[in-house]
């Protein structure tokens, strides 16, 4: 019992420390790439960029970033369209901060893909709504988890990009929650399966039973954690980048002698791999992430740690009866995810744990590939910016997509 309480307290402390980071100022910011927006960064590195606004059927306005062509091939009709979807606490910067040589978005543009990068509701680029204000109406605005991202965000994104480009299908790469939203979308709106040429799932997350991370620590608290955080007025998880900026500019300074500690502390949430950690990128990365998330997205994952099931949000007995007409939340029907899927997983991933990934793989009806990244310490965030990603993952993905 004491251990359980200690665990809960630790989880809460972690949440509150990160969530209250808003008040810290950042007098030391001196890294240009940390401060540029995603479109500004893309322009800086010599690629064309477009900004699109997509409005969901429930009123969220999301910014989408497009790199229509790369350095080896110009604009053309009928290019292959690819959608990149970031994970928890991430944004479209995840696909470009590694720079033009290693960033997946740039590599794909140079392979002649028409690259679109989504931003889920609630992150840096998608804090807008047709009628709700993220601050004044915070309780309503932030009452979503990745369930709503799969139900509303991705269908709106897909409709928009398919219409805009005039193509009948797209390639999809999702990381972490970018995969979770995809599973929700395809199981709840099965008509979208036919529009997906190949889903490349990086660090796939559906079942979270074996998750090892502070998200798992909040699990014993279940519904109450959200209530508690709501008391603090924290509907939004991680309201600002200021705290991370501060760490990024001080502890993780390029010349700092304690860079390793920095990566230890920061990467506690998602696993740690010093081999593939590019310390020089840290100030830039931390200028962009964490990019904002709702508390409910974390709680929803934590619920899966306890239930061992991949199912809808648990509102508690009374809430569930009212919303679902049953005591327990319904499970997502994985058998409806008929789009072709390639799974990419890391041995040292604390969030997309091998046993959970394998359980998903057994139930997915159209598995094309189950690929273990060829590096023993490869972790959850390595998928985005590990030193050797061109060989470890980018080329793997691009080569395999040629079959579809
Ligand atoms: C997207 O929305 C913003 C804010 O309303 C607006 O300034 C911008 O012009 C819009 N962009 C496009 C391409 O419609
Ligand atoms: C479809 O795309 C065209 C531009 O290619 C645009 O003019 C039109 O408004 C779009 N329709 C919808 C429903 O988004
Ligand atoms: C970091 O060290 C390099 C070489 O020692 C130096 O040129 C550079 O100015 C230093 N950067 C900062 C921000 O102190």
UniProtKB/TrEMBL annotation:
Belongs to the AB hydrolase superfamily. Lipase family. SUPFAM superfamilies: alpha/beta-Hydrolases. Pfam families: Abhydro_lipase. It comes from Orchesella dallaii. It comes from the Eukaryota. Residues 38-97 form the Partial AB-hydrolase lipase domain. The keyword Ligase does not apply. InterPro entries: AB_hydrolase_fold, AB_hydrolase_lipase, Lipase_euk. Residues 1-21 form the signal peptide. Transmembrane segments: none annotated. Keywords: Hydrolase, Lipid degradation, Lipid metabolism, Signal. This is Lipase.
